[in-house]
């Protein structure tokens, strides 16, 4: 695995923030924070590990919907936090290949649309009935491409649509001369990205105080 450092996390978090249209991260108290300001997420704090800086931050938080994140195993984050914190399902910080080599054709009955929102480029695979079958977005900033919100509708899975979305996002990355590709995968998405040449950098764990 590559060594994870705070600048790498800052590049990912900057891309995430641009994608969602929220303020850019700031460095504070040994980590990074973003004032997300959304109904289900007020703020997020990202740390390099579950050490004293994260623990000191957690001790000061008593309001719900504030998230702590770090590239550690869920059990490590759990052990570092007071019992009031809930540790969510694990994720995976992943690094993409220089460019995708796998290619699949778009199945009949679908079309690809590209647009922009906030600081991101959006790719949508539309079914002929007008439904969004799959989608994803990418931000490109200072040579780093952050892939975000890659989703395939339950009724359109196992047709290669996730790969189609990734192909189009990768083409946008190439056009922007991206030299680094990052994403945080769910357990469900990890298999797709691995099949496309992405590799694991670190586990990714999240904790929150429930509302």
TrEMBL record:
Keywords: Transferase. It holds the Pfam family Acetyltransf_1. InterPro entries: Acyl_CoA_acyltransferase, GNAT_dom. It comes from Pseudoduganella aquatica. One of its GO terms (molecular function) is acyltransferase activity, transferring groups other than amino-acyl groups. Transmembrane segments: none annotated. Residues 75-211 form the N-acetyltransferase domain. This is GNAT family N-acetyltransferase. It comes from the Bacteria.
């Amino acid at each position: 695995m590559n060594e994870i450092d705070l600048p790498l996390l800052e590049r990912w978090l900057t891309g995430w923030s641009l994608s969602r249209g929220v303020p850019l991260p700031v460095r504070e108290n040994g980590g990074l924070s973003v004032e997300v300001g959304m109904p289900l997420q007020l703020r997020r704090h990202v740390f390099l590990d579950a050490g004293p800086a994260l623990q000191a931050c957690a001790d000061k938080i008593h309001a719900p919907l504030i998230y702590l994140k770090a590239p550690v195993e869920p059990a490590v984050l759990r052990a570092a936090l007071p019992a009031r914190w809930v540790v969510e399902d694990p994720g995976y910080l992943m690094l993409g290949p220089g460019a995708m080599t796998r290619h699949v054709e778009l199945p009949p009955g679908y079309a690809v649309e590209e647009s922009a929102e906030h600081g991101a480029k959006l790719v949508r695979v539309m079914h002929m009935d007008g439904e969004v079958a799959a989608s994803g977005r990418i931000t490109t900033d200072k040579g780093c491409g952050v892939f975000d919100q890659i989703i395939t509708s339950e009724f359109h899975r196992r047709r290669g649509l996730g790969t189609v979305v990734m192909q189009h996002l990768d083409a946008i990355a190439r056009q922007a001369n991206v030299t680094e590709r990052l994403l945080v995968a769910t357990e469900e998405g990890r298999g797709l990205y691995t099949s496309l040449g992405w590799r694991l950098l670190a586990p990714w764990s999240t904790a929150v105080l429930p509302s």
